[in-house]
Sequence to fold (342 residues):
Amino acid sequence: MPLLAIETTCDETAAAVVSRSREVLSSVVASQEQIHARWHGVVPEVASRAHVERIVPVIDEAIERSGVGRRDLEAVAVAVRPGLVGSLLVGMSAAKMIAVAFDRPLIGYDHIAAHLYACRLADPHRMRYPCVGLVASGGHTSLLHVTSPLTMERLGGTIDDAIGEAFDKASSLLGLGYPGGPAIERAALEGNPQAFRFPRPLARDRTTLDMSFSGLKTALRYQVRPPGAAADTPPPVGARLHDLAASFQQAAVDTVVAKVRLAVEQTGCDLLAVGGGVTANSLLRASLAAYAAKAGIDLLLPPPELCTDNAAMGAIAWERIERGERDPLDLEVVPGLIRGSR
Ligand code: KG4
Ligand code: ZN
Fold:
């Protein structure tokens, strides 16, 4: 019998039904993009209220589309960490309610591990361990040494802004709106990525797998509005806008690829598995593919809809069920990242 997975870590309300053989029978994602667009980023309280409104219809739709009866669900899986506390609590409460009402086991899972598990869903035969994992999203930028679906050690990652957060802020500075990643990617299409030489902090430092994106964001800010310029300076337009977007995107992608290369060298792994919303970015995908081909390693790049937040990746809960694990009904959410795991 399949399981129901629920995902509400940030601003997507998602539910999916996944069989034991990891077949995704349905996957429903209700995005809150339009709600948060006027604030150019996710507002936590607004996000939790929107989850409350959507969670029941989203779960109903996932079950209905899967063709599986409510009583034929074997377990309820839910993302317990990391994320926004109010958002996580909505998914957790819904999962507990269903677990109690239908007397089914409750299984919590880690959102970061689930992003990498999307590679297993996308390509079950090529996913193997150990491998290097890259999770690049709105909340995280982490390089991991992954030894099994559930075990991984953090090798490095951002020391300040997450890469997706940098895209979102850059987009806002350029007057392109939220979410920033897709908007920057579109604007960059017609731009020259060499027009502005933006900083790539730490990218050349071979002693660390850490990265930094806040200096890049500040450099863009100074191009858009130099120090001392009026607060109402209009955002750039035309070729300048496209060049700024393309140069920003290139610097962010170069930074990540440099550290991915170092992580692969240091671990000796021959597989790179990636996940998270930013890995939907075409330049990042093409750059990782070019690097992997040159280095002679395998690359697993899930399709974009499995990169951004979704509940299908909650299929990772099967790994715990198969180990005989389940969680108590007083399972708690863990909003913060484990120290140093950003
Ligand atoms: O994984 P995700 O859906 O949610 C989090 O766990 O954070 O990632 C969302 C982030 C946002 O910052 C969004 O701007 C970014 O992923 N993103 C992209 C693209 N699509 C989404 N960034 C760059 N290029 C894209 N095409
Ligand atoms: Zn995510």
Q: What stands out?
A: The first helix runs from residue 33 to 37.
